[in-house]
Amino acid sequence: MTRKKDADLTRREFMKTVGLAGLAVAGAGGTGAIAAPAPPATPAKAATVPKRKLGKTGVEVSSLCLGGMFDTINNQLLLKQALKWGVTYWDTAESYGNTLSEEGYGRFFARNPEARKEIFLVTKLEAKGGKLTERLDKGLARLKTDHADLFFIHSLTGIGELTPAIKDWAAEMKKAGKFKFFGFSTHTNMEDCLLGAAKLGWVDAAMFTYNFQVMNTPKMKEAVDACVKAGVGLVSMKSQAGRPGKHEVGGEVKLEMVDRFLKRGFTDKQAKLKIIWENPNIASICSQMPSLTILSANAAAAMDQTKLAREEFDSLHRYALETKADYCAGCGKICQEAVGGAVPVNEVMRCLMYHRYYSEPELAARLSHRRAHAPGRGDVGLTPLKVPGKAGSRQREEAGKSAGLLDSLWRHGVRIIYPRGIFPG
Predict the structure, then answer these.
(1) Fewest CB atoms within 10 Å of the CB: 216, 242, 351, 390?
(2) At 176, is the secondary structure helix, strand, or coil?
(3) Span 3-319: which CATH code?
(4) Could you give the CA distance from residue 292 to residue 41 in angstroms, rounded to a whole number?
């Protein structure tokens, strides 16, 4: 298939050519397509990705969001196809590709100026870098737009970080027309951040880790309910619940789960998206989709109207229980306290997740370097370790720093117990 034909696939051709379950897994790099039997008759598909209301903003956004943590500059055809399939909620950040993600989106808008009107655009800044107005202006310039539809404070770890000064700044930027709505993203202490946001009254939306591993805990349910009542729009990320470990876990349970979903006509990766969409209060799922294959798989799952059966909910729940010892929920407290705050354990696990589960060693290297050298972090003992990969030797060595972070845990006496033993070993 030529690149031009790839980009110009119509939805009908796409759905006819590849069955829902015959597509590559969603959200995990380095994995190929999963063969599946022809899917049984299902309810009619949506013409494009459906939309949902984003809390009190009242804005209808696509239920699938294009996460910009990939090479947007060299994937312009993918951006075009995302728009064509109705993936009109696009997310990016200053830190993604060290501003290159924003530049890629900006290049697309420059070439397709009418497309900007169709896109609900989100960008993010980490507050600790200061100079928010200056950095926001530079980001908007890279994006080739005069405003973002939604702005997030990136990687919030506690609601106290949304200071009165941040509140005043957000109000000033709204008044200046630089963004319409304000919120935050969080990988850490998500429940506490959401509960706090519900009480503040000036947070419009939040993007947070929400997947089959964490969605059913009492505190997460309480936090989501509080935000819904307060009108805070909710966006899920980390939908695949990637793990930091090397080893495959939950063998028999996973095989049973995969087989069950394939018989229904979709993959287990698509089922992990669909179980999130079962909650009508989640407006969208932000997913990293760096290839047309992954984009098409996720879009197909969003368009498909098949509901999960009770047995399929139970199957995912059993898998969650089987694999929970190998999953970092990002609480940032228990492990951190065990090493006296010397090591950002949850951030280490996040780097390892990208490195080992998503097969993104260079991304893991960038994250680990940025976290390790952030103000106030101190020295967490980065040890260069060579790792396998397609990148050059220097890049592989840099990627190994994410694994080297875990060595510092080991030196501080932390042993992470997984079902198959102690890690690292």
Answers:
(1) 390
(2) helix
(3) 3.20.20.100
(4) 25
